[in-house]
Amino acid sequence: MTYRVALIGAGTMGGVHARHWNAMPGAEIVGVLDPRADAARAAGPAFADWDTLISQSKPDIVDICTPTPFHREYVEKAAAAGKAIFVEKPLSRSIEDCDAMLAAVEAAGVPAMSGHVLRYFPEFAAAKRAVDAGKVGKPITIRTARMAGFPDLGGRPNWYADPAQSGGLVLDMILHDFDWLRWTFGPVTRVFAKGLYGQEEYFGDLDYALVTLRFASGAVGHVTGSWAHPGGFRTTLEIAGDAGLIEHDSDRSAPLSAMLKTKGGAGGVAVPESPMAPTEDPYYQELAAFVHALQNNLPPPVTLQDAREATRIALAALESIETGKSVTLS
Ligand SMILES: NC(=O)c1ccc[n+]([C@@H]2O[C@H](COP(=O)([O-])OP(=O)(O)OC[C@H]3O[C@@H](n4cnc5c(N)ncnc54)[C@H](O)[C@@H]3O)[C@@H](O)[C@H]2O)c1
Fold first, then answer.
1. pLDDT, tens digit, for every residue of 117-137?
2. Which of 28, 134, 256, 293 is most buried as measured by Cβ atoms within 10 A of its Cβ?
């Protein structure tokens, strides 16, 4: 069967998803909803409102790529309409919203997956396999860093610059690390963080955070995030265990680096790019994994419960930055 996809939000991430849906055998974009009509039309057949989109385009999957504050509304609508749901991370700015989304999806009995794409980056997938295979022995300390320039939406109202909407880089960007760390090393029990969140009088929009995590296993994690990086995207990973060490640095391992002059495009948040064939791209892989789960009646590989737990760690880090105290997670 060919899965019919309705895309909600055709900005940076909606554009990435549209490219991959169009390249995927067994999927097609049948409708796009975005108040920016030109952006909607560029991604596929544009619709002016939700009801018309659903009744006329008859999607099987609703793919939600709006700014974070709109995720809950569209998850609830898509669940009520009985659609399979792919929703970008972070699920929401609040646990109450996450719980409402989980309840809506459960009540409707629809499959739902969230975009924790780091699990599909080959270095991080390989590191997880090595840890699972016991290659480093018992993991003791894990450091990750994720650095990019401050999101520039090319003159569009910048919802990333408003921590009340985006949660700053802790909720928006290093949430990726929180999900991967929890997936690989198990539950987190305590969070302590320092960051620039909410200090715009000194630092403007720039954001930086250092988050330390205590895992139930006893391991310790250090997650650094920066939106003060002068362009490009860089990630590092170091896992030290009692039997060895695994390291990754995207600057050292990049198979291709291109520094091209831009001609003032539409702007958008920095998204890590892949030099691999389109079907090997992590953003393609996560959407294909969702379709594979639907085709085979399997649970989606990243559940909304997973996404809620990553959000809970990020919200604890934001609380710790504000209060200066560590936060214990039950
Ligand atoms: N997984 C990743 O690596 C990754 C990377 C970037 C962004 N994201 C996430 O994707 C989501 C979108 O981010 P983005 O950078 O594409 O933002 P963006 O601002 O570039 O795009 C959002 C689009 O949604 C549209 N929109 C706004 N309100 C809407 C509404 N009520 N209904 C329908 N469309 C609406 C906007 O017009 C815009 O075109 C965010 O949650 C962000 O955190 C994830």
1. 999 999 999 999 999 999 999
2. 293
The rounded Å distance from CA 243 to ligand 1 centre is 42
Please tell me the distance from the alpha carbon of residue 184 to that of residue 144, in angstroms, as a whole number. Answer: 13
The structure tokens 């996809």 sit at 5
Domain ranges of the chain: 3-115, 118-280+305-328
Going edge to edge, which strands form the sheet with 327-328?
A: 244-249, 233-241, 139-148, 220-226, 208-215, 188-195, 327-328
Q: Would you identify the CATH topology of the domain 118-280+305-328?
A: Dihydrodipicolinate Reductase; domain 2 (3.30.360)
Residue having the nearest C-alpha atom to atom 32 of ligand 1: 34
For ligand 1, pick from 8, 47, 66 the residue to mutate: most ligand atoms within 8 Å of CB.
66
- Is a pLDDT exceeding 90 seen at residue 326? yes
Residue nearest to atom 38 of ligand 1 (CA): 11
Counting ligand 1 atoms within 8 A of each CB, the residue from 19, 36, 65 with the most, and so the one to mutate, is 65
Write the pLDDT tens digit of every residue in 140-150: 999 999 999 88
- Is residue 117 lining ligand 1, measured as CB closer than 6 Å? yes
The predicted pLDDT at position 259 comes to: 65
More confident: 95 or 233: 95
Q: Is residue 278 a contact partner of residue 288, using CB atoms and an 8 Å limit?
A: no
Token code pair at residue 95: 């646990």
Ligand 1 atom nearest to 116, measured from its CA: 1
Number of other CB atoms surrounding residue 316 within 10 Å: 23
Pick from 292, 305, 323: nearest CA to 182: 305
Q: Ligand 1 centre and the CA of 130: distance in Å? A: 34
Cα dihedral sign, 73-79-85-89: positive
Q: Is 218 in the pocket of ligand 1 (CB under 6 A)?
A: no
CATH code of 3-115, in short, is 3.40.50.720
Q: How many CB atoms lie within 10 A of CB 261?
A: 4
